Amino acid sequence: MAYLTRNLSDPSAGRQLVDGLVEELGNAVNCYPDWHPILTAPPRRRSEHIAGLSQIKAYAGVDHTTEFVRGFVTCPYSAETADRLVATVGQVPGLDARRLDGPLYADDAHPVVVVAMNVELEADGTIRSRDAIAWFAQNMAAASDGAQVAETWWNIRPNILGAPHGSRSSLFVNQHAGLHMRKILEAMNASGMFGPVLESSLDMLSPKKRDAIARTLLRTAIDAWDRESPSFEFELRGETCKAGIRDTWDDGMELSIRVEIGKHDLYVSGFHYPKDDKITHSDPSGRRKIAEKFL
């Protein structure tokens, strides 16, 4: 609301427009799941991952955009750009676009509303489950063409649920749909249609467990370091760990540390502050089976 109205000379009129958009398009969101018609309806290479609407040719000219469950509003400064966007989107089956009566974002902007007409909302504001599940399954099946590895639920959960999201639901899909999407993904992965399963995210583990894993590896690397070698190996719980430690600023105040097991089995990096014997770190990534050895 603030983003679209704070620069207007008549914010009250702008707020009424935004209220109407929320009623029509649903909740405001951060980004769409990969299977959403807003991303899949326009022509594009099927294997291409879309990180933002500006990557899609049909949406050329989008500017100052706010996304909602059923579509988005964008506010280019050029009336010609706005008209061209409406005309281009109008040729895409399943999408509709129109100019908005009244300004948003700025008095001299020309808002355009783009709606995915096939998206119907449940009473809770999420996309109708049967549609969301079907679109997800179709998108995943299409992604198998040329795939080299299978991604786990934890690796690609934001791409499936959209953002913001929880463990198995989001503003796009409720828990019923999210649970079935996970089951479908796991069945597809088990079939081998994408190739070998690649694990990288350890989000299935609690923050406390991820913290313990990272600290165990980094602390052991510090203890095993001879204070001279920039890289070395050490054994821990049956695994060969490759470590690298360097003095970040060559002043003895901060050590940069990384520890890796295998090629993609487990990785963590962080910093050690000798004066206070304090460790900070990133989240570890890799395979759950290997990571849990260090709890």
Description:
The protein is of the alpha+beta class and 295 residues long. The chain contains 9 helices and 13 strands. The strands form 3 sheets. Strands 8, 9, 10, 11, 12 and 13 form a 6-stranded antiparallel sheet that branches. A hairpin with a 4-residue loop joins strand 11 (266-273) and strand 12. Helix 5 (129-143) packs parallel to helix 7. It is globular. The chain starts with a helix and ends with a helix. The mean pLDDT is 95.
Which descriptors would you attach to this protein?
295 residues; alpha+beta; 6-stranded antiparallel β-sheet; 9 helices; 13 strands; 33% helix; globular
Give the terminus-to-terminus CA distance.
Answer: 45 Å
Report on the biggest sheet. 6 strands, antiparallel
Spell the H/E element sequence: HHEHEEHEEHEHHEHEEEEEEH
What structural category do the secondary elements indicate?
alpha+beta
* Nearest-integer average pLDDT: 95
- Low-confidence segments, given as residue ranges, are none
Based on Cα principal axes, name the global outline.
Answer: globular
Number of β-strand runs: 13
**Rg calc:** 24 Å
How many helical stretches? 9
Helix content: 25-40%
Q: How much strand?
A: 15-25%
